[in-house]
Amino acid sequence: SYRKGGYHAVRIGDPFNAGRYIAQRKLGWGQFSTVWLAYDTQTSKYVALKIQKSAQQFAQAALHEIEILSAIANGDPSNSKCLVRLVDHFKHIGPNGQHLCMVLEFLGDSLLRLIRFNRYKGLQLNKVKEICKCILIGLDYLHRELSIIHTDLKPENILLISTIDPTKDPFRSGLTPVLERPEGGTLNGGSAMNIIEKKLKRRAKRAIANISGRRGSLGGEVPKLERSLDGVDVKCKVVDFGNACWADTQFAEEIQTRQYRAPEVILQAGHSFSVDMWSFACTAFELATGDMMFAPKGAQGFSEDEDHLALMMELLGKMPRKIAIGGARSKDYFDRHGDLKRIRRLKYWPLDRLLVDKYKFSETDAREFAEFLCPLLDFAPEKRPTAQQCLQHPWLNLRTSTHDEMENQPNVKNLNVGISSLQIKVGK
Ligand code: ADP
Ligand code: MG
């Protein structure tokens, strides 16, 4: 992809926009772009520099994204709406052509990395609530004030706000990447997350060594640690407006990333703001459990779409006939009674039971969380609550009791518990 029309190759120290920005390290990449950490010499701050591929269709897409990002920034002068901020944009000419570049405020790791960091065990419900509030503030502003649909909401596209100070111990700075100084000297090898992981492992080894008097006496086994997100402010922002659109303009039919796709998109029954609410519910579930809510797979005899619809009905009940047969693609999947043509036997496993049985939620936590999520997963898009209505939901504003927190989702504070139980084993 590093050829004419493709990505622009960047080396650390490369200057951009007449020397204002200096490239530091790669932060990530997407289909259309590479994203670099850069030092802004004008403001002495770090920024994210998104460099688009140069071919005409990518430039067109970047112009669209800049238009959306500008509308977001113009309507929110205080930068309080939990959406990534566009700082600047310009053109950069390189060997592969002319690249549109977006300068964005520098953010930290994505929620996907946060979920991975937590070993796919799900975050404490109080953290989930904080994150949900941020996302909803962003969606409410986007939908109600700007009439924009994001269309690609998912954990990967929600980034933690970076509170990193490169001079401080990354262990206390959250999950943010470790920076390199503008001169090029690396402050730390690897990401902060790797460093935390190493620290935890080292601590655990030391703890075992203290108990047994000998390093690695448990066959090198390191006790499974829960990781603390206590130091992490989970405030976050929604990013990636490359697929966003104004609700009243003609938009693509095939939107959203598979697992976060709403049923009306699969059935091609028309869509609006409420597709974001569906994706939001899928994201909240994933944060709380560590698993995707729907992970459809195609197989012999049926497609990914059919599996997806079946999974939805197993969790949420039968799709009302009118909705099932109401889309341009309905005939491909449903018979005239509104039953799936090729997947006949469905095992109903409702959300609150799933949360208790599979994810070991307490009855209360499961019921409350399901009451929050289920309306968002209504098969009738117009019945789903808006982001504004969702923000009023009591679940978001009631802290889950600490007792449940400790019991269901232990964090690093429980390290001592883990080690004393280990001690008993060693003692025997
Ligand atoms: P694309 O539209 O090409 O998918 P994205 O906007 O999703 O590009 O950015 C690609 C990746 O770059 C993201 O997944 C993320 O890892 C990183 N990234 C994007 N924006 C920022 C930012 N503001 N701060 C830090 N990292 C970012
Ligand atoms: Mg992306």
Automatic annotation (TrEMBL):
A Pfam family recorded for this sequence: Pkinase
InterPro entries associated with the record: Kinase-like_dom_sf, Prot_kinase_dom, Protein_kinase_ATP_BS, Ser/Thr_kinase_AS, SRPK
Keyword 4Fe-4S appears in the UniProt entry: no
Gene3D superfamilies per record: Phosphorylase Kinase, domain 1, Transferase(Phosphotransferase) domain 1
Protein keywords: ATP-binding, Kinase, Nucleotide-binding, Serine/threonine-protein kinase, Transferase
PROSITE patterns: PROTEIN_KINASE_ATP (PS00107), PROTEIN_KINASE_DOM (PS50011), PROTEIN_KINASE_ST (PS00108)
EC number, as in UniProt: 2.7.11.1
Residues the record lists as binding ATP: 50
GO process annotations (BP): regulation of mRNA processing; spliceosomal complex assembly
Protein kinase domain: residues covered: 21-396
GO molecular function, one term: ATP binding
Superkingdom as given in the UniProt entry: Eukaryota
Entry keyword annotation includes DNA damage: no
Catalytic activity: L-seryl-[protein] + ATP = O-phospho-L-seryl-[protein] + ADP + H(+); L-threonyl-[protein] + ATP = O-phospho-L-threonyl-[protein] + ADP + H(+)
Family (UniProt): Belongs to the protein kinase superfamily.
Protein name per its UniProtKB record: non-specific serine/threonine protein kinase
UniProt source species: Rubroshorea leprosula
